[in-house]
């Protein structure tokens, strides 16, 4: 894998370093969610399990891990990673008596790379098909980064009948894009720049972004080359179409109404030094839209909490599950 940066990549690092964001009525709400779930139920029953694969109704093949027995915890990974990103949390919770499930989103990791379906309605429906096929009940859903949006859209479209709790870690929710109703968001031109970087040299982009992702660009930071290489490997395994189109999906999707439909207990965890999805426009607003949310801020924490602060995150997740 590459280990050095070109002048062009250094320029992109400078852009990343200065960027704010990368990539990057309760009863009425319940009734609305149930209605959405009824509309999508037919698609759920079309899914087929085959070993560690789920073949969706439109023919996509999704790789997933399903370890252990006990209460189910379902993980949704961030961009541009795969289910491997959750291995520390999955192993820890497995040792503590939980059944842990994580899939590679379509186009990511070991899942197939279809030509379409890189939007949150499809991501949520894929997740629903997996949950139904495994017959998971009273499950806790945990989403990191763009996976937080997947959890929110899943509840909005499929209801809470299989959901006990939800957790958002460094999540892109509620809305990243600057609009008339979201004046503190980032301009579309910023995300256009990121898409251009992916198209120009995706391999270098996946290496460069690890600096702000893990706050390795801060003075005195302990840089882990192993983490950088793991991120790079997972990012390169993701298909080009997913890498390109998912940037638009997580940056331009408004999850505010989705979050309002979540009434189960929620945990929101975020780092105060998240350079990818800044705390002020994400976790604080997300927690404010959830009626039963607990917000935990890791002082100095980066976007990559699940790796850099894995022991603390593991403990917080376990306490939330047992609470």
Automatic annotation (TrEMBL):
<dbReference type="InterPro" id="IPR029058">
    <property type="entry name" value="AB_hydrolase_fold"/>
</dbReference>
<dbReference type="InterPro" id="IPR000073">
    <property type="entry name" value="AB_hydrolase_1"/>
</dbReference>
<feature type="domain" description="AB hydrolase-1">
    <location>
        <begin position="71"/>
        <end position="307"/>
    </location>
</feature>
<dbReference type="Pfam" id="PF00561">
    <property type="entry name" value="Abhydrolase_1"/>
</dbReference>
<dbReference type="InterPro" id="IPR050471">
    <property type="entry name" value="AB_hydrolase"/>
</dbReference>
<comment type="similarity">
    <text>Belongs to the AB hydrolase superfamily. Bacterial non-heme haloperoxidase / perhydrolase family.</text>
</comment>
<protein>
    <submittedName>
        <fullName>Alpha/beta hydrolase</fullName>
    </submittedName>
</protein>
<dbReference type="GO" id="GO:0016787">
    <property type="term" value="F:hydrolase activity"/>
</dbReference>
<dbReference type="InterPro" id="IPR006311">
    <property type="entry name" value="TAT_signal"/>
</dbReference>
<keyword id="KW-0378">Hydrolase</keyword>
<dbReference type="InterPro" id="IPR000639">
    <property type="entry name" value="Epox_hydrolase-like"/>
</dbReference>
């Amino acid at each position: 894998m590459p280990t050095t940066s070109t002048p062009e990549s250094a320029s992109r690092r400078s852009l990343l370093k200065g960027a704010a964001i990368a990539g990057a009525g309760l009863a009425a709400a319940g009734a609305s969610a149930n209605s959405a779930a009824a509309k999508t139920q037919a698609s759920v029953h079309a899914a087929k399990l085959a070993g560690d694969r789920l073949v969706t109704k439109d023919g996509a093949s999704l790789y997933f891990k399903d370890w252990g027995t006990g209460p189910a915890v379902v993980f949704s990974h961030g961009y541009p990673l795969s289910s491997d990103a959750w291995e520390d949390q999955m192993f820890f919770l497995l040792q503590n008596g939980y059944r842990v499930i994580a899939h590679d989103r379509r186009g990511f990791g070991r899942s197939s790379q279809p030509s379409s379906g890189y939007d949150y309605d499809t991501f949520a429906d894929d997740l629903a098909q997996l949950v139904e096929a495994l017959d998971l009940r009273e499950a806790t859903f945990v989403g990191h980064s763009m996976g937080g949006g997947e959890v929110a859209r899943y509840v909005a479209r499929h209801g809470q009948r299989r959901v006990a709790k939800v957790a958002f870690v460094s999540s892109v929710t509620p809305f990243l894009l600057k609009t008339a109703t979201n004046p503190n968001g980032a301009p579309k031109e910023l995300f256009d720049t990121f898409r251009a970087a992916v198209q120009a040299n995706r391999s270098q982009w996946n290496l460069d972004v690890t600096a702000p992702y893990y706050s390795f660009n801060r003075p005195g930071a302990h840089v882990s080359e192993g983490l950088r290489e793991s991120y790079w490997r997972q990012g390169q395994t993701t298909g080009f179409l997913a890498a390109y189109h998912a940037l638009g999906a997580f940056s331009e999707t408004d999850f505010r109404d989705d979050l309002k439909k979540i009434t189960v207990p929620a945990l929101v965890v975020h780092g105060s030094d998240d350079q990818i999805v800044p705390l002020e426009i994400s976790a604080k607003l997300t927690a404010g839209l959830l009626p039963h949310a607990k917000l935990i801020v890791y002082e100095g924490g980066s976007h990559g909490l699940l790796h850099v602060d894995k022991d603390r995150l593991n403990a917080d997740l376990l306490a939330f599950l047992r609470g």
